[in-house]
Amino acid sequence: MHNILVTGGAGFIGSNFINKLLKDRDDVSLVNLDKLTYAGNLENLKESETNSRYQFVKGDICNSELVDYIIKKYNIKHVINFAAESHVDRSILGSQIFYQTNVIGTNVLLEVSRRNDIEKFVQVSTDEVYGSLGPDGYFTESTPISPNSPYSSSKAGADMMVQAFHHTYGMNVCITRCSNNYGPLQFPEKLIPLMIINALNNKQLPVYGDGLNVRDWIFVHDHNKAIEMVWEKGKPGEVYNIGSNNEKKNIEIVKLILQYLGKGEDLIKYVKDRPGHDRRYAIDSSKITAELGWQPLKTFETGIAETIDWYLANKNWWERIISGEYENYYQNLYGSR
Fold it and tell me: Which of 26, 25, 121, 23 is nearest to 71 (CA)?
């Protein structure tokens, strides 16, 4: 049995990872450590909560005593770190929590993992650490790190720390850097769910600048399959880029959603661009394909249709998030730790 500590497992990508891994495999036992900040949602894990191989612990990755307790109690041998403050806009408004969680929290996980002889540590990062691309070219694993936002700089700092622990202590670590994710369970502040929900409510759809910023989109299950393969087969100390070669302008995404929902483009409202808005991201994922045999399975056309349909079918889920009901519920249930 592989005993794995998954941090941030109540968030969008982490919860999809837990649900899928427990469903597909019977050789893993997962402990989910999550602080349940505004983007954490235990309802994301309803299909896993009754599984005997799943355990939830509410807590902060910055709490070294708690992390050490979990690793010892559950005989953890592998750590996959999804935990992060991840919304660029929020990092611009206030950056301290991003450095606290993304840098200090990662340091705590690394130190405790090192002391407990963890067999594999996977750091889930982002292509945003590379900065911005022009109209041509792709991010490769050798592209210099050049973050442009407080969020991406905090992730870059964490990545460099992970690599330092490999070189200094010989820890078996891997880093994954993925393009923009989409799919079920994504928190409503992100582009695709925000546009879906606003359109359903006949509210204006805010589009930054001219709407021509380009992102490379990947379905969340394809991303998580790549993480699973990196955990199992990734070479120590290596970075693996993960992308689907689905470059789309933001305005294309918005118009596609409106068309799918039968809404008019008069709902689009162009707003002032955010500071330091990177123009284009595009991932070269040939390394993970060549070394580990990973390939994305979901086309964007199929994935976006499934995603929109999921939000249509799960109105209660996102309505409770928007109302703040979950945050109050968890505070009453668990308190703070």
Answer: 121
Catalytic residue among 34, 60, 85, 128: 128
Q: Which of 130, 151, 281, 311 is catalytic?
A: 151
pLDDT tens digits along 215-227: 899 999 999 999 9
Rounded to two decimals, the pTM is: 0.92
Kindly list the domain boundaries of the chain, sorted by start residue.
2-334
Which one, of 12, 8, 10, lies nearest residue 310 by Cα?
12
Say which of 127, 216, 228, 238 is annotated catalytic: 127
Farthest CA pair distance, the chain: 58
Q: Is 151 marked active-site?
A: yes
Beta strand ranges found along the chain (DSSP E): 2-7, 28-34, 54-58, 78-81, 120-126, 173-178, 180-182, 205-208, 214-219, 238-242, 247-249, 268-271
The full DSSP string for 158-223 is: HHHHHHHHHHHH---EEEEEE-EEESTT--TTSHHHHHHHHHHTT--EEEETTS--EEEEEEHHHH
What are the structure tokens assigned to 207, written together?
Answer: 């589009």
Cα–Cα dist 141/288, whole Å: 10
Q: 2-334 sits in which CATH class?
A: alpha beta
Quick one: pLDDT band at residue 325, thresholds 50, 70, 90?
Answer: low
Q: How far apart are CA 41 and CA 27, in angstroms?
A: 25
Q: State the burial class of residue 266 (Cβ atoms within 10 Å of its Cβ: 0-12, 13-18, 19+).
A: exposed
